[in-house]
Every structure is written in C-alpha cells, then in structure tokens.
Write a structure and sequence with these properties.
The chain has about 100 residues and is an all-alpha fold. The longest helix has 30 residues. About 10% of the residues have low confidence.
C-alpha cells in the first residue's frame, strides 16, 4: 500500500514537472509579440477596469463562501453565473480589440 502511494506520488510529480517544462518552453503568447500594441492593450485595460474589479470581488466572495461550514449552494451558483457573465463581457471587449485571451488572464 505504502509502495503504491510512493509510486503514485512520483508519477504525479513527474507529470507536473513535464507540464511546467512544456509550458515554459512554449512561452507566453504575450512574450511572442501578439500583444505588442501597448496602446490597444491600455485602451482594453481602461475599458475593462470596472469589470475586472467586479470580477475579482465576486471571485473573492465565492472563495469565502466555499470556506464556510454552512455552504449555500444557491448563492454559489448565482456567483458562478455572475462571474461567467463578467468574463464573457471582458472577452467581448478583447475580441473587439483583437487581443488574445492570454494577454489579460
């Protein structure tokens, strides 16, 4: 039993290491120049600042909700829906400016 657990942990660590190395080798789309027009990125940031702030607040609220003993599933579902709507709005603005999602994640 203990040997199987050690082998399992070693396999997971190996997969995680490989994933991290692959991600580093691939590089970020922003570092490859796909977000190089800083004026467009700044306009996008200004236009979505309010949405991003609200998104962060809702995300924090949801994380706190998950930490409570008396978990309210209805409220969690409502928050998740609101978060999805906010992300969709931000993505629409990104599409308007032709900004890749990796540049604002």
């Amino acid at each position: 039993m203990k040997k199987n657990m050690v082998v399992g942990i070693a396999m997971v660590m190996g997969m995680l290491s490989f994933s991290a190395a692959s991600a580093l080798a691939a590089g970020s789309c922003c570092s490859e120049g796909k977000c190089s027009d800083e004026q467009v990125v700044q306009q996008f940031t200004r236009e979505t600042a309010g949405l991003a702030g609200t998104l962060k607040a809702k995300d924090i609220e949801l994380r706190q909700l998950y930490g409570y003993d008396g978990f309210d599933l209805g409220k969690a579902n409502d928050l998740e829906t609101e978060i999805k709507v906010l992300k969709d709005k931000i993505n629409l603005v990104a599409e308007k400016y032709a900004i890749s999602s990796c540049c604002f994640v």
